[in-house]
Amino acid sequence: MAANSTTVEVAERVTALDPEALRRDFPILDQQVHGKPLVYLDNAATTQKPRAVIDALVHYYEHDNANVHRGVHELSQRATNDYENARTTVQKFLGAAEPEEIIYTRGTTESINLVTASWGRANVRAGDEILISAMEHHSNIVPWQMLCEEKGATLKVVPINDDGEFLFDEYRKLLSNRTKIVAVNHVSNALGTINPVADIIKLAHEYGALALIDGAQAVAHLKVNVQKLDCDFYAFSSHKIFGPTGIGILYGKRALLEAMPPCEGGGDMIKSVTFEKTIYNDLPYKFEAGTPNIADAIGLGVAIQYVNDVGLDAIGAYEDDLLQYATERVGAIDGIRIIGTAKHKASVLSFTLGQIHPHDLGTVLDREGIAIRAGHHCAQPVMERFKVAATARASFAFYNTRDDVDRLVAALEKAREIFA
Ligand code: 7TS
Question: How far is the centre of ligand 1, averaged over its atoms, from the C-alpha of 297 (Å)?
Answer without folding.
Answer: 18
